[in-house]
């Protein structure tokens, strides 16, 4: 088998845990084994809300050849260039290479599947495109 061949991968829900330390500290990430199986050609991970949106992701773009977001639970509001986009559970978004965007609001139960190529894609801050609406306040946590 050559170094560029891909491997079979099957990850069950209990095989990998959600962890901090990903691109954004207010999200948790669950590796789905695709980056290892494809030798870095593609990454697939689940991303979920960990903290209320205060400042969001900031304006940025990705240095990637391909990226899709599939909203699994909840919702998120993005700015794609100067267009506000509500992405709800079941929606699929193809983020064309280099599109300037800003995830600025999301529900407490937000969870999405992100698939990107290459696996080691870069996130690059960009100048603001337009003003960002305020995020929706999360309900206060009930005392146990």
UniProtKB/TrEMBL annotation:
Domain Cupin type-2, first and last residues per copy: 50-103
Coiled-coil segments: none
InterPro entries: Cupin_2 (IPR013096), RmlC-like_jellyroll (IPR014710), RmlC_Cupin_sf (IPR011051)
Gene3D superfamilies reported for this sequence: Jelly Rolls
Protein name per UniProt: Cupin domain-containing protein
Organism: Lampropedia puyangensis
Record lineage: Bacteria, Pseudomonadati, Pseudomonadota, Betaproteobacteria, Burkholderiales
């Amino acid at each position: 088998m050559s170094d560029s061949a891909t491997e079979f991968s099957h990850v069950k829900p209990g095989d990998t845990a959600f962890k901090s330390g990903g691109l954004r500290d207010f999200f948790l990430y669950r590796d789905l084994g695709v980056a290892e199986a494809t030798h870095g050609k593609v990454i697939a991970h689940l991303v979920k809300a960990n903290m209320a949106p205060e400042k969001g992701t900031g304006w940025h773009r990705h240095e990637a050849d391909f990226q899709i977001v599939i909203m699994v639970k909840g919702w998120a509001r993005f700015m794609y260039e100067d267009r506000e986009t509500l992405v709800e559970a079941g929606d699929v978004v193809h983020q064309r290479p280099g599109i300037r965007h800003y995830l600025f609001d999301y529900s407490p139960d937000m969870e999405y599947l992100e698939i990107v190529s290459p696996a080691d894609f870069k996130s690059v801050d960009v100048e603001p495109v337009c003003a960002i609406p305020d995020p929706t306040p999360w309900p206060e946590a009930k005392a146990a």
